[in-house]
Specification:
Tachylectin-2, Chain A; six-stranded antiparallel β-sheet; four-stranded antiparallel β-sheet
Amino acid sequence: MIKSFRKKTMAVILLCALCWGAMACSDKNPPDDPQTEDPTVYANPVVPRSLPDPTIIRSGDGWFYLYATEDIRNTPIYRSADLVEWEFRGTAFTNDTRPDFEPKGGLWAPDINHINGKYVLYYSMSVWGGEWTCGIGVATADSPEGPFTDQGKLFRSNEIGVQNSIDPFFITEDGRNYLFWGSFRGIFVIELSADGLSVLPGAEKKQIAGTAYEGVYILKKGGFYYMFASIGSCCEGVNSTYTTVVGRSMNLMGPYLDKTGLPMMENRHEVLIAANNRFVGTGHNSEIVADDEGKTWILYHAVDKLNPKGRVLLLDEVKWELDWPVVANGTPSLQYKRPVFNL
């Protein structure tokens, strides 16, 4: 009996050792397609379908709404309570209401805002390679789910004199409205009207950053303005080199600098999110959102090597070290503890 007990004990010890070894290996070499039943943990991608260039807003009822480049025609709208579980809610436009100033153009890289009681959606409209005919327009709605009414174009590349005028970002500073935009031909800014629906008469554009960037987003935090942007190629499948980068300034209008003090006007920056063995093409981030525990989160797109169709939606926490944003390991997580929102 003692011998039998010893055999059982040794078997249990051996089994535990094997389990521990498997866990240790898993920590060093995380699985390519992690699954979790832990309700406090999520796995990337949070949406496994193509949602490039995401932009989000939190409405008065506590829901988050996400809009993206139209892999779903007419600009998809998704809704979430926690940034992890997303449901499709429809589109911002229909075939009858979609903008048409670029007749065969796609609707790219939207930017959602709430201005004077209206949901205001800036959008890019372009055909691939149409860098002098593309432009930026604006639409409005009373609800984040629309319907959105197009208010027409703000400008086209050939009108404002900026090649590849796409990727809008709106921000208000000291009661004045500004639009940042640009794609690999310089990042520019111009002042908008009080309602945000037109360029302010007499306003002049100003270049803010160099020619390495597109998809800019600016966050004001503490005493700094942080310019997030993307470099590299967005749309070459598993060969995409898209990378999320950042610089900072003490003024909205710059200069934006890297950690060594060199300017983004000279294409200098810090890398925030780069590729790993699972995800490549990590870029064009959304607005950064704080959860109810004060943690900050970023949504962005990437190409999933396990299913490289389109650019899927990823979520990661942004931590702050010495007043600079950091994502763990500098690459997308496979699993991570969920944001906390107390609806």
